[in-house]
Amino acid sequence: MSFIGKSLQFLEHSVASFTVEVVATVLHPKWISEAASCATRPTERDRDLPGPFVTWLVIAIGLFRSLSIQNVLRRLGNALGADSLWEDEGPRSTSVTEARDRLGFGAVRGLLRQFQDWLLIQHRDAMSWRGLLVLILDGTTFKAPDTAANRRHFGLPGVSRGGRSSFPQLRSLFLVSAKLRLVLRAWFAPYRRSEVTLAMRMLDDIPRGSLLVMDRAYLAWWLLWRIQKRDDHFLVRVKRNTRRRRLYRLGPSEWISRVQIPRHLRREHPEMPSTLEVREIAVRIRGHWFHYFTSLINPQTHPVKEIVEIYARRWEIETGFDELKTHQGNLSSVNHPVLFRSQEPRRVLQEAYGFVIGYNVVRTLMLRAAIHHRVDPLRLSFVDSLDRIREAAPVMAAAQTTDLPWLYRQLLSSIAGCLVPVRDRTNPREVCTKMSNYPKKWKSACA
Length: 447
What we know:
Elements: H1 2-5, H2 29-37, H3 51-63, H4 69-77, H5 93-103, H6 106-123, E1 128-129, E2 132-143, H7 148-154, E3 169-177, E4 183-190, H8 195-202, E5 210-214, H9 221-229, E6 233-237, E7 245-251, E8 254-260, H10 263-268, E9 275-285, E10 288-294, H11 304-312, H12 315-328, H13 345-373, H14 382-398, H15 404-416
Parallel strand pairs: 2-5, 5-6
Antiparallel strand pairs: 1-2, 2-3, 3-4, 6-10, 7-8, 8-9, 9-10
Helix pairs in contact: 2-3, 2-6, 3-5, 3-13, 6-13, 13-15, 14-15
């Protein structure tokens, strides 16, 4: 925080030099300025909402999901104990919308990528196993407001009971560290795109030297072959009906197996070989047999026990989705099913990338607190840590600049105290609330 103390006596006194102090050591203000310069329509004159401030606003919208955008703006620009950034009541909703449109979603996406690359450089060793970057690849969906523009762009999922779905949905694909739960890549697309198709298109964007841990939905031979061709590795669970021929045994529960590539797939991709050799691992967990395919052939350099333990970490991405959607996104109640609030697709995407930036900010502060106080970062409570950061934001905004380093240390100490007990929990595929028997309510936007 020392660079903040050398800039201004009160950073919040000027909208031109505005900084969200609570996350300024994670998101460098220089990155914010660079992102604003890549806006769809860069600001050519002084405005109440310049590009860097709007970039901070988009990130804050993801951190304060329970507040309306206007209240987030008020919290940023009118901190207690500090002068307001504007002479009057502040910009109106239409001004905020226009400012967000000037910024666009490409600038926020570029900021997220720069942030992710920096995290990869800073913490690659902590995210690696035997020289491989252990990453979990999986997808999820997010609901968007039901407007005609969002329906046309993102599309609607099918339904089995007649009619159509209630909300447009975004298909998303995430690449998450299995050890630190940081989101290192995030892609968003219309709902009609399948996760495997999206993974094939985004494969070249995955960091080199990775071990991709995936569930059964990603058992696609074209995808696995391309991963091997990149000199990366995969670990994927096997479907029950997968045909393979075991060539020879490597150990009590592992074999080298050969899979015949379907002819139709080779016609589509003539460069593919006719067969693919993989290492098959079988393990019995709580009375059930599980089978895995991996490209890590050598049992001496990559023991079977460690590989099974690595696959068990695949659940970390499910925990990350829960943190994103249920806790940071405030979707813990069925009365708030929609995560994003923008009425237009480009603003929805802008909000989505800002939301992921906010998540990585929280997890990075949790990681720093864990390193400084020597605790396991995955034992820190995301809910409590997010609450501490939200509480610290207005305090640090109103504080004198010379007090910020001390407040930052206090914040890390407070986060480090948010430990959760070690539990051996299972997560069955069950729901608490079943579908309601009330008649369907069609919103006016559906007409």
